[in-house]
Amino acid sequence: MSTTTENGVGGYRNTSGEKTYKKTTSSALKGAIQLGIGYTVGNLTSKPDRDVLMQDFYVVESVFLPSEGSNLTPAHHYPDFRFKTYAPLAFRYFRELFGIKPDDYLYSICNEPLIELSNPGASGSLFYLTSDDEFIIKTVQHKEAEFLQKLLPGYYMNLNQNPRTLLPKFYGLYCIQSGGVNIRLVVMNNVLPRSVKMNYKYDLKGSTYKRRASRKEREKACPVYKDLDFQDMHEGLYFDADTYNALMKTLQRDCLVLESFKIMDYSLLLAVHVLDQSPKEGGEPGQAVGDGKRPVAQRVLYSTAMESIQGDGKAAEAHTTDDTMGGIPAKSHKEEKLLIFLGIIDILQSYRFIKKLEHSWKALVYDGDSVSVHRPGFYANRFLKFMSTSVFRKTPSKSAGFCSSVPYDRDTFMTQAVTHASHWDRKTSVMV
Amino acid sequence: MSTTTENGVGGYRNTSGEKTYKKTTSSALKGAIQLGIGYTVGNLTSKPDRDVLMQDFYVVESVFLPSEGSNLTPAHHYPDFRFKTYAPLAFRYFRELFGIKPDDYLYSICNEPLIELSNPGASGSLFYLTSDDEFIIKTVQHKEAEFLQKLLPGYYMNLNQNPRTLLPKFYGLYCIQSGGVNIRLVVMNNVLPRSVKMNYKYDLKGSTYKRRASRKEREKACPVYKDLDFQDMHEGLYFDADTYNALMKTLQRDCLVLESFKIMDYSLLLAVHVLDQSPKEGGEPGQAVGDGKRPVAQRVLYSTAMESIQGDGKAAEAHTTDDTMGGIPAKSHKEEKLLIFLGIIDILQSYRFIKKLEHSWKALVYDGDSVSVHRPGFYANRFLKFMSTSVFRKTPSKSAGFCSSVPYDRDTFMTQAVTHASHWDRKTSVMV
């Protein structure tokens, strides 16, 4: 326990090999997560269903869990801690929206071991995956949690309009307080099912500046590559026209929401499973995984890649079979059959804009600061252009006979949407 | 035009008999409404469909319509005016939510004469009804319009969760500026179809203090009576158990939303059509009305009384037939068959609380002012108690053999809902 080696910003590894985060061992953190969520979800079931009100987004519930147990909480082997649940009724409502039953949420998180993932980014966050592949639990910084809290009403207004989205779905926000330390956690949907062997993984931003995986990253078993690596390794991923259009439309709607919140610096997490490569080697969808359990497609609604981009109603269920594990069928330029898994990640880091959100939403409309107004639009524009031309491509129709990808006309869309909004900025006036 | 007589706060009648509002004749106002809404809805159709963003609630669109016409607007016979549309994209989304197509909205408001209603309250507002009974257009004061603007994001969060509600459905907010005068208008659902003859009309608040219709009101052809009058004239309105429970549940959810916005002083507008009374005398649902057109049930989704309280899915359509015109079947204590029409009205007058909403929603949670915290709860409680016991009653089951109405256990419900929220107030803390 004496020597620690740094592992990103907040994550350390002690001499016994166990990771620590803010001086808390990973096992103590996992234990506190399971006890805390177990308590808070159980407690919620006694509260009657009612409509979510605006105030519910600002409620924080708090319970103390001493090691020796209490009237309300069981005894445990970790240091005393306090567990805070943010916006419990609001998150309950949104778990329902995505078809997550309280018992399933409890079972997934509390009844099976949490699997610690090696840090996919360099943020120093710890990541845990539930055994059934449904949920990711991620430590977040104070400012990120605060940003999420402020974002929630508007964010969920958009989720309500459009549950088919590649944006992260937040199912809970918690804080564990112990020994003078606060560890904040978000529960989100999991983009990459473990049961599928990913041949390539990318973190894409649409930028080329310094966007190459480090040597250290490349030495890993399954490195997360970046934009320049993608361009070296692929000549685009090819989809049939309907799928390509659905994917582009989803990305555009999502980027518009992010732009409206002045969020930037997000990434597209993209994983490619090659179906044609050596089916005997295991990791093929539908095959048994390491722990001997037969993998099943994710149960949470709209959480698979395919469901996230499917435009219409109930049809998506049919797509989420054991054959694709929710991945989107695609082809490489060499006609290899692929399954694509993807989601937009890292949307909470833009907390420099928090001051603007603090006052009121009006501040966003009246804001004259050209940097904060235009930079998120520039970012979204570049992101979409890269995705729609360099990364995703439409399979050329056989009659045409030549290979041209038709980039979705993002400019027209965005001009009529966001730029429309900023156009109105100038005309906007308070009621007089 | 020289002499005017006061008619409420803002409404006057000039010597030619035509009403004026803020020095504007009713015919000029109707003309400006039809021209303005015609322009703004037409203009919207050229804007592509996209998700509503939080900022959209604060957008104000403005167009100038000179008498001689312009490139964008037709010539007209009224003074020059400017027409402002508040939150155009947000209201478009919510019209869609209620199944109102742009063409139908345009046609209802702009293509048939607007019918001026005699002022139902003493507010001085002018009320116009569209010829097809779908929409009410009402003048509102500056503060009311401002309050509605601030309310919109949270109000529609609730409508999204629960489109079955007796709360007013707002379909548009506009302002006509002419000759230095601002006239603000809301477009809402119409609670009382003209094609049904209402035998009794009430404005109920659950209070008994001075709640009797004035002598002047009583002299009208169809007076709007109040709480004490109701108690003199009826021994309650009887519903089967399912309908009673659905009605109470809807009122409770609605009152909870109003309480969360600190709104008070609203009324239940209640109209009773007696089915058994002399069917030959006309005014019977399904019969031809004065203008010789066969009445049809309202087309707008969830806008009839029956649809407003129906809990489950699609079933409501079946209920909205020509037989009931969307009214809720009930009986008097003398076993007369009735149809009940109702809606909660006058929710925008509580603008004294506007200061609190201005800062942020958080202010509502942290607010320590016991008056503003408790008075809306007291009002809601008294309102619900009166409705659930004195006004609406459950038909006694035949096996029981005696007449006892079982008031819905509002206390339990509210304790677990609103008072739960204020319970949490004390525990609530900002993130530290």
UniProtKB/TrEMBL annotation, chains A, B:
This protein's record includes keyword Transferase: yes
Pfam family, one: PIP5K
Region (Disordered): 1-20
BP GO annotations: phosphatidylinositol phosphate biosynthetic process
Gene designation per UniProt: LOC112263935
Residue stretches making up the PIPK domain: 25-391
Any one GO cellular component localisation term in the record: plasma membrane
Keyword flag Transferase: yes
Keywords: ATP-binding, Cytoplasm, Kinase, Nucleotide-binding, Transferase
Main location: cytoplasm
Location in or out of the cell: Cytoplasm
Organism: Oncorhynchus tshawytscha
Protein name: PIPK domain-containing protein
Recorded GO MF terms: 1-phosphatidylinositol-4-phosphate 5-kinase activity; ATP binding
PANTHER family cross-referenced by the UniProt entry: PHOSPHATIDYLINOSITOL 4-PHOSPHATE 5-KINASE TYPE-1 BETA (PTHR23086:SF34), PHOSPHATIDYLINOSITOL-4-PHOSPHATE 5-KINASE (PTHR23086)
